[in-house]
Amino acid sequence: MQRLIRALVLLLILGLGALWGLAWFGRQPGEELGDAFLRQIAALTGQEAPVPVSAGGVQLPQGVTLGGPFTLVDQDGKPFTQAGFGGQLAVAYFGYSFCPDVCPTELGNIAAAMELLSPQEAGRVTPAFFTIDPERDTPEQMKLYVSNFHPRMVGLTGTPEQVAEVARLFRVYYKKVNRPEMSEYLMDHSSYIYLIGREGRVRLLLRPNSAPEAIAAAVRGQLAAR
Ligand code: NI
Question: Is the pLDDT of residue 222 over 60?
Answer without folding.
Answer: yes
